[in-house]
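Supplementary notes for students who missed Thursday's class. We covered one full example, reproduced here. Read the sequence, then the structure, then the short commentary at the end.
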Amino acid sequence: MREYLQLLTIVIIAVFLLWFGYRLLIGQWAGVRAQWKARPRQSTFIKMSRPSGAPGASGNSSTCPICSSMLDKGDLVKTLVYPSITGGKDRLMHIRGCMYCINGKLKRICPVCGCSLESEGILVARIFERPGRRPHIHVLGCSHCRRLGIM
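Structure (token representation):
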């Protein structure tokens, strides 16, 4: 009788583990597989067309300083801001670009020298903190023209 209860306990645990594994792996991935199959294949080859504007244009919407595409609300430009050495209001900043030009779908152009930026190219800029207002960003050049001393 004791062996029968042990065998029954093992079978119940095995069934529960199989059900849990099915729900965890198969149940969650079933919706993903259905979305993957329903997705049109040619959509991955469509070039992105973004409305473009002038870098630094005034208004409610902002533009990417590298590709000049209009950014939607919540879209961010990937940057790296360094701390101020002198403790002043201005700091050095590296700008990589927005999500539309980092992935290589839009042309990346330096607004200072006009040369084309490669995928790992950055813009060097100064950021000025202004109390009660948005920070002001002044682009100094790209990694190419700053290295050559063109200004």
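Commentary. Residues 41-48 have pLDDT under 50 and may be disordered. DSSP finds three helices and six strands in the chain. If anything here is unclear, bring it to office hours.
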